[in-house]
Amino acid sequence: MQEEKTKDISANTPVVNRTFWQRLTGKGNGVRLSTMAKIILYLGGFTILMVVASILYGAVPAGQDPGAAIDYPKEWDFRWDAIKWIDGIVDWVVVNWDPFFEVIRAIVLGILLPFRDFLMWLPWWLVIAGTGLLAWRVVGARFGVIAVLFLGFMAIMGLIDMLMMTLAITLTATLLCVVVGIPVGIAASRSDRFEAMLRPILDAMQTMPSFVYLIPALMLFGLGMTPAVMATCIYAVPPIIRLTNLGIREVDAQVVEASRSFGTTPMQLLTKVQVPMALPTILAGLNQTVMMALAMVVLASMIGASGLGVEVLNGLARVEPGRGFIAGISIVFTAIILDRVSQAFARRQETRAVS
Q1: Which residues contact 290 (CB under 8 A, 6 or more apart)?
Q2: Most CB within 10 Å of its CB: which of 64, 281, 285, 341?
Q3: Is the pTM of this model over 0.70?
Q4: In the chain, where are the structural domains located?
Q5: pLDDT tens digits, residue range 127-181?
């Protein structure tokens, strides 16, 4: 509504009364500056700023402090104050919220340890044969053979047990991301205000350097697999939230209105119409979450997580490039298998939804 009012005001503005800023930005009708004229003006403004900076540098006598006109004043630097404030908050949380984090640790280990024990219990030949059969049925015979070759390579290199540890951490983190991410994505799809509030948080979670996630996870949960899973969850949960929100919002409005006209409740509309139709998009988000979770295995090994990441870290620490390369290529093979299988499953769900 505000944009329409602005357009009406601009349209009714006489050409003779149009300001230079209106011509520069192209608002309203009448004569507008050409693209070349705008480029020349921008370059001219930048040149003026550079000339002013050069004059300021030239006015500073040799060997003297240039002052605040050039160098940022040190007395305005509050970085250490901010660091101490944040450290104080973290220390307070660690001391006072310890029972809460103990509950989280118990939940994570209650999922992770049985899952790890089950994967480690499986015979190596069953892992290879089962994965090959799954890849053949979901993707195709050709990729089934490729998956068997990939796992055969890892078996020959003696990395099957480490692969099972990596899968246990990755899939546990993915499960937690699904449990948290899908409800949050559904809530975002139902509230524009909540989505607007959530968007910058997700942007920060996706652009924050991966190492940063290890710091709070390590301080809150100590060394071990629990902080590795929690750091992986924080890093990998944004895609499934975003794509769940997107998938539900893209459900055909006519289908939603028809469902409401038949008297469906909001919960029936969500579970029987919106989620099934958005399932291909949600599965695409799940695929991205799995890939991002697997990308954290090397970093997670730095805070006590076992698996293939430990081999990469040892190869780096001991300057053994062969050791690091073999573990790294094994992680790549694992990512390829998980990616192709999850993508094929998502395509199948999309075909069912269309049909």
Answers
A1: 170, 174, 236, 338, 339, 342
A2: 285
A3: yes
A4: 2-59, 96-121+157-354
A5: 899 999 988 988 888 999 999 999 999 999 888 888 898 888 888 989 999 999 9
